UniProtKB/TrEMBL annotation:
Gene Ontology cellular component terms for the protein in this record: vacuolar proton-transporting V-type ATPase, V0 domain
Gene: LOC107476637
Protein name: V-type proton ATPase subunit a
Subcellular location: Membrane
Lineage top rank: taxon: Eukaryota
Functional summary from the UniProt entry: Essential component of the vacuolar proton pump (V-ATPase), a multimeric enzyme that catalyzes the translocation of protons across the membranes. Required for assembly and activity of the V-ATPase.
UniProt KW Nucleotide-binding keyword: no
Coiled coil: 102-129
Family the UniProt entry places it in: Belongs to the V-ATPase 116 kDa subunit family.
Transmembrane segments: 424-448, 469-486, 549-571, 578-602, 638-656, 757-778
C-alpha cells in the first residue's frame, strides 16, 4: 500500500492527513477481452478486486485449469533455477521485452525441461561409468602388483628348490619335504579370487567378517589408495582400499559375495595372466579418455543451455507470475448469465477513475473486442479500504502507525504529526550530539547505498534498519539538536555558543559546587550553560529542568490528540462528540494539567521559589486556603477554585448526556424510516445487503451507557497516568546522560591517567565498545520503544480508532513482495 502509484503528474498532491476518497466500481467485461483488461489494470495497480466467488472452492472456479498450468510452468522454472545454482550460473536481470505469449512459453519450457532432464540423466550415467572405470583401473594396478610380487616370490622359491636338489640332501633338509612336494603336486588345489574396492573405514570390519564367515579359509590382501576416489553410487569422494580375496569352493565364494554387498564393496573382473592385465589396463585407459572427452562436451553443452536459460529466466519468471496473478484475479470475477461477460467489483481511489477508464479502453481496442468494458460506480454503505499515498520517507512512519492499527476510512492520520513528534520525543531521551552524529552517519550509509542495498537480500535486522533509514536520520538530527540544548558531546560540555555566563570569584567554588560562582556575562545564548556540568548542583538542576519539560511536552501532545478528535468529529459531522467528548475532555485535561503547565512557565519566568507539589496537592485537599509564599500571581486561589469546579463538572458532562442523546437519535431515525418513500428494487437490495449491521440492530441503552462509563473512567484516570507516563522522557534522558558520563570518566579518563600506552589503548577500545553496544544500540532501541509507547498509548488513544483495513490493489509491482 505504501508507494502504490505515488508518482505521476496525473495524481493530485499527496495528502497524508486523510486517506484517499474511495469508490466502489463495477466492471462488466466482455469475455474475449477479460485477460487483457485485468492485465492492464495490474499494470496500473489502482483497483482492489472483491472476490465475488467466495463460496466456491479453488477447483470449482472458471480458470482453475489455467492456474494449474501456470503452477506447472512455475515448477519448471524452479527446476531451472536449481540447476543454474548447482552449475554456478546466475540469472541475468534483463530489461528486454518478452515476445513470447504464454502458450509458446509453455511449449518452450517443456522442451527445455525434457532436454535438460535427458542431459542430466546421460551426464549422470556417463559420470557413473567414468567413476567405475577409474576404480577398475585402480584395481587392475594394485591387484596386478599383488600378482607380480607373488609370481616373483614363487620363481625365487622354485630356483631355491632346484638349487637344493642339485646340491643333494644335507642334514638341514626337512625329512618330509619331498613327500609334501610330491603330495602337493599330485593333488593340485585350484583357488578362486575376487578383487575390488572397499571403503577404508569399513576395511577392518570387512576383514574380520570374512575371516569368521569362512572360518579362516580365505586369504585377503589389501592396498591403500592414496587419493580419495569418487564413489560411483553416491557420487561423493571416499577413501577406499583395494582388496583381493583368495578362496576355495563355491560356498566360500557365495559368502564372500554377500559380505561384499553388505559392506558396499565394488567388485571388478580381473585376469590372472599378466599379459591380459596389461591389455585390460590399456583398454580401460582408452575408454577413460574417450569418456572424459564425452563428459566435457556434454558439460559444455549443458552450460551453454543454462546460460541461455539464465539470460531470459527473469523475463520468463515475471511473465508466468503475471499470468498466474491475472488468472487468480479472473477467478474472483463472476460469470454473467449469458456466459459472454465477466462482472467485477472493486475499490479504487476517485482520482484514478480516468486512468482506469483509459486502461479499459486500451484493452478493448488491443483485444479487437466489439464491445467495450462497462464502468459504473456503485453506491454502498460498506466501509471502504484505507489508502495513503506515501513515499520512501513517509512510508516508514506510516508503517509505525499501521502496526498499531490501520486507520478507519478518512480518519485523521497521526502520521502527519508523528513524522516530527516521534523523532523529537526520541531525541529528548537520547540527547547527545556526539551520539546523534554517530546515528546520522549510520543512517547516511544506508541512504547513500540505497539503490544497491534495495536490490540485495538482507538479513532480518539489517532489512529492518534499512527500511527505517529515514526515521533513524530524523532521530539523529533531532538528537543533535537536543544534545546541543543539553550541551553534551559524549557527556562532555563545550562552549560552542560563547563563554559561560558564570565565573569563579570565591575559593569555595573550587570544590565543584556553584556556591562561589558569580554571573559576570549575559546568559548563555543556547542550551544549558557548560558550567553546570560536573558540579554537585548538576543533577538537581537538570532533574528539575527535564521533569518540567517532560510535563510540558506531554500535556501539549495530549492536547493535540484531543484536538485531532475534534477534527474527526467535525469531518464526520458528529456534533455529539464535539459537545460531549471534545469540550469536556479539553476542560478536564487543561483545568488540571494545563494549569500545572502554566505554573511551570510562570515559575520559570518569575524565578519564584514556590513549591508546585504543594500547590497541586492542596488545590484538591483545601482549595479555599491561602497559598502564602506559594502564590505565583494575583487571583491564583480563585482561578484554582474555578478550574477545580470545571474539572468536576466535566466528568458528568462526558458521562451522562451522550447515551441519552444517542437513544433519542436512534428512535427518531427509526421513526422517520417508517414513512420514507419506497425505493427501487436495486436500491432496496443494496441497502439491505449493506445495512444489516447498522440501521436495524437493536439499541441497547445499558450497553451504550456502560461503554460511555468505561470511556469516561479511562479518560479521567488516563489524564493522570498518561501525564505521569511522559516523565519517562526525563528518566531515560537522565539514564542516558549518566551512563555516558560513567563510560567517559570511569573508562576513558581513568585509562588516560595511567600514562601507559597499552592501558590507554585498552581503555579506548572498551570505551568504543561500551558506547556502541550500550548507548548506540541498546539505548537507541530503548528510547525508540518508549517513544513508540508514548505515541500509541498516550497520544493516539485520544482520537485514533484504527479499525480500518488496508487498500490492497491488484498490482504487478507488488508481485515481488507477495513472493517473499
Amino acid at each position: 500500500m505504501g508507494e502504490v502509484a505515488s508518482g505521476g503528474g496525473c495524481c493530485p498532491p499527496m495528502d497524508l492527513f486523510r486517506s484517499e476518497p474511495m469508490q466502489l466500481v463495477q466492471l462488466i467485461i466482455p469475455i474475449e477481452s477479460a485477460h487483457r483488461t485485468v492485465s492492464y489494470l495490474g499494470d496500473l495497480g489502482l483497483l482492489q478486486f472483491k472476490d465475488l466467488n467466495a463460496e466456491k472452492s479453488p477447483f470449482q472456479r472458471t480458470y482453475a485449469t489455467q492456474i494449474k498450468r501456470c503452477g506447472e510452468m512455475a515448477r519448471k522454472l524452479r527446476f531451472f533455477k536449481e540447476q543454474m545454482l548447482k552449475a554456478g550460473v546466475s540469472p541475468k536481470n534483463s530489461l528486454g521485452h518478452v515476445d513470447l505469449n504464454i502458450d509458446d512459453l509453455d511449449v518452450k519450457l517443456t522442451d527445455i525441461e525434457v532436454e535438460l532432464t535427458e542431459m542430466n540423466a546421460n551426464g549422470e550415467k556417463l559420470q557413473r561409468t567414468y567413476n567405475e572405470l577409474v576404480e577398475y583401473k585402480l584395481v587392475l594396478q594394485k591387484a596386478g602388483e599383488f600378482f607380480q610380487s607373488a609370481q616373483s616370490r614363487a620363481i625365487e622359491q622354485q630356483r631355491e628348490y632346484e638349487s637344493h636338489q642339485l646340491s643333494g640332501e644335507s642334514m638341514e633338509t626337512p625329512l618330509l619335504q619331498d613327500q609334501e612336494l610330491l603330495g602337493d603336486s599330485g593333488k593340485p588345489v585350484k583357488l578362486g579370487f575376487l578383487a575390488g574396492l572397499v571403503p577404508r573405514e569399513k576395511s577392518q570390519a570387512f576383514e574380520r567378517i570374512l575371516f569368521r564367515a569362512t572360518r579362516g579359509n580365505v586369504f585377503l590382501r589389501q592396498a591403500v589408495v592414496e587419493d580419495p576416489v569418487i564413489d560411483p553410487v553416491s557420487g561423493e569422494k571416499t577413501e577406499k582400499n583395494v582388496f583381493v580375496v583368495f578362496y576355495a569352493g563355491e560356498k566360500a565364494k557365495a559368502k564372500i559375495l554377500k559380505i561384499c554387498d553388505a559392506f558396499g564393496a565394488d567388485r571388478y573382473p580381473f585376469a590372472e595372466e599378466l599379459g591380459k592385465q596389461a591389455q585390460m589396463i590399456k583398454e580401460v585407459s582408452g575408454r577413460l579418455s574417450e569418456l572424459k572427452t564425452t563428459i566435457d562436451a556434454g558439460s559444455l553443452h549443458r552450460g551453454s543451455l543454462l546460460q541461455t536459460i539464465g539470460a531470459q529466466f527473469e523475463q520468463w519468471n515475471l511473465l508466468v507470475r503475471k499470468e498466474k496473478s491475472v488468472y487468480h484475479t479472473l477467478n474472483m470475477l463472476s460469470l454473467d448469465v449469458t456466459k459472454k461477460c465477466l462482472v467485477a467489483e472493486g475499490w479504487s481511489p476517485i482520482f484514478a477513475t480516468k486512468q482506469i477508464q483509459d486502461a479499459l479502453e486500451r484493452a478493448a481496442i488491443d483485444s479487437n473486442s466489439q464491445v467495450g468494458t462497462i464502468f459504473q460506480v456503485l453506491q454502498t454503505r460498506e466501509m471502504p479500504p484505507t489508502y495513503f499515498r506515501t513515499n520512501k520517507v513517509t512510508s516508514s512512519f506510516q508503517g509505525i502507525i499501521d502496526s498499531y492499527g490501520v486507520a478507519k476510512y478518512q480518519e485523521a492520520n497521526p502520521t502527519v504529526y508523528t513524522i516530527v513528534t516521534f523523532p523529537f520525543l526520541f531525541a529528548v531521551m537520547f540527547g547527545d550530539w556526539g551520539h546523534g552524529i554517530c546515528l546520522l552517519l549510520a543512517a547516511l550509509y544506508f541512504i547513500i547505498r540505497e539503490k544497491k542495498l534495495s536490490s540485495q537480500k538482507l538479513d532480518d535486522i539489517t532489512e529492518m534498519t534499512f527500511g527505517g533509514r529515514y526515521v533513524i536520520m530524523l532521530m539523529a538530527l533531532f538528537s543533535i539538536y537536543t544534545g546541543l540544548i543539553y550541551n553534551e558531546f559524549f557527556s562532555v560540555p563545550f562552549e560552542l555558543f560563547g563563554p559561560s555566563a558564570y565565573a569563579c570569584h570565591d575559593l569555595s567554588c573550587s570544590d565543584a559546587t556553584t556556591s562561589g560562582l558569580v554571573k559576570v556575562r549575559h546568559t548563555y545564548p543556547f542550551g544549558v550553560d557548560p558550567v553546570w556540568h560536573g558540579t554537585r548542583s548538576e543533577l538537581p538542576f537538570l532533574n528539575s529542568l527535564k521533569m518540567k519539560m517532560s510535563i510540558l511536552l506531554g500535556v501539549a501532545q495530549m492536547n493535540l490528540g484531543i484536538i485531532m478528535s475534534y477534527c474527526n468529529a467535525l469531518f464526520f459531522r458528529n456534533n455529539v462528540n464535539v459537545w460531549f467528548q471534545f469540550i469536556p475532555q479539553m476542560i478536564f485535561l487543561n483545568a488540571l494539567f494545563g494549569y500545572l503547565s502554566l505554573l511551570i512557565i510562570v515559575k520559570w519566568c518569575t524565578g519564584s521559589q514556590a513549591d508546585l507539589y504543594h500547590i497541586m496537592i492542596y488545590m484538591f485537599l483545601s482549595p479555599a486556603d491561602d497559598l502564602g509564599e506559594n502564590q505565583l500571581f494575583v487571583g491564583q486561589k480563585y482561578l484554582q477554585m474555578t478550574l477545580l469546579l470545571l474539572a468536576l463538572v466535566a466528568v458528568p458532562w462526558m458521562l451522562l448526556p451522550k447515551p441519552f442523546i444517542l437513544k433519542i437519535q436512534h428512535q427518531a431515525r427509526h421513526g422517520d424510516e417508517s414513512y420514507t418513500a419506497l425505493q427501487t428494487t436495486e436500491e432496496s437490495l443494496q441497502v439491505e445487503s449493506n445495512h444489516d449491521s447498522h440501521g436495524h440492530e437493536e439499541f441497547e441503552f445499558s450497553e451504550v451507557f456502560v461503554h460511555q462509563l468505561i470511556h469516561t473512567i479511562e479518560f479521567v484516570l488516563g489524564a493522570v497516568s498518561n501525564t505521569a507516563s511522559y516523565l519517562r522522557l526525563w528518566a531515560l534522558s537522565l539514564a542516558h546522560s549518566e551512563l555516558s558520563s560513567v563510560f567517559y570518566e570511569k573508562v576513558l579518563v581513568l585509562a588516560w591517567g595511567y600514562n601507559n600506552v597499552i592501558i590507554l589503548i585498552v581503555g579506548i577500545v572498551v570505551f568504543v565498545f561500551a558506547t556502541v553496544g550500550v548507548l548506540l544500540v541498546m539505548e537507541t532501541l530503548s528510547a525508540f520503544l518508549h517513544a513508540l509507547r508514548l505515541h500509541w498509548v498516550e497520544f493516539q488513544n485520544k482520537f485514533y480508532e484504527g479499525d480500518g483495513y488496508k487498500f490492497h490493489p491488484f498490482s504487478f509491482a507488488l508481485l515481488d513482495e507477495e513472493e517473499e
